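Q: Convert this sequence to structure tokens.
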Amino acid sequence: MSKYVQLSAVEQRFVKDHGPVTTSIYKGLDYNQIMVARINADMSLAYRQQPSDFIADKWFPLVKVDQISGLVPRWGIGTFFTDYVQEWRNGTALPQGDIFLDTHIQYVCKRYACEIPLTDDIVAIADPGIDPAFATTAFLTDVMQLHKERVVAGAYFQSSDTGGSNVWGTNWNGVDTKGAGEGEFVKFDNYTQSDPRQTFKDVKLAIKKLTGKTPNTAVMGEQVFEALRIHPQLIQWYQTGANTIRNITELNEAALAQALGIDNILVGRAMYNKSPPTDTPELDWIYGGHVWVGYVDTPGVMKPIAGVNLTFTEPLGGFDTAFTVVPDLRTHAEYHQAFQCYDPKILAPGLGAMLANAIGSEEGSGP
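A:
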């Protein structure tokens, strides 16, 4: 129970003349000075990309090769489209056909590698939530795929209108307003004048005219996808007609593909750091504001496909990425290493088309 003390007459006069007496209390140490900062959560923050952000292996499927360099056979485009059959009478020579091979495609796989050194003591004393071995594997997996994405996109997601070279059989360029001439189309983010359904129909027919195959895949930068998924023409296509969806306001990849009349859409969402490693990171998209339309399939014997990634598996290679750990007993460290060996090649230039500058407000500059 609290006990109150009555001030004497002298004490009361002192308080009246001088005010109450106060005493300051000073802390000698704070918690952060007397406790060691420890990581107590089994988690950590990291900026990592989703595996689905990388599309190179879907666009240029991996094909295992037994030699680091060699040739890929290619049949002539007219072999299976030329009608050699004629009317025939018994006792006469039969009309003869001709199966012929075109110029073979030469490939030379290049080696790519990266390593991370880990000293033994770092692994032993690491806090919970920081697993150096796991982090190293995750890092090597991500950066090897990142580099492959840049190699494929840098070589083949281009045309002269993107500042590169025309590597595909059909190359069109986006313009700002109507009045587009041959090989041109109105950019898709011009919502009042562009006609993406007509553009896709025209480019599909152009590829079919060259190769006899109807394209089944579109590859586009994320910026283009974001412009197309809210395009009024495509939204209206879903809001009218037999299969009316009144409340739809934006499209996912599957819905966009159906509206554009294409089987598959691959959206290049992967990004990379443009700055040197020691500078402040500056991220940019690997795939710029462009679109590729063409034919993609599972590689096989006598099958049409626009391109593949020829992968040499041994030694120091892997169908995708090969990992190894090299111990150094002298320095008590381990070197975690990753290897790839591949050569992405266009097999049929006519089975692909570049639609350069598909939007006007492109932010990504590409690899």
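Residues 175 and 289 are 13 Å apart (CA to CA).
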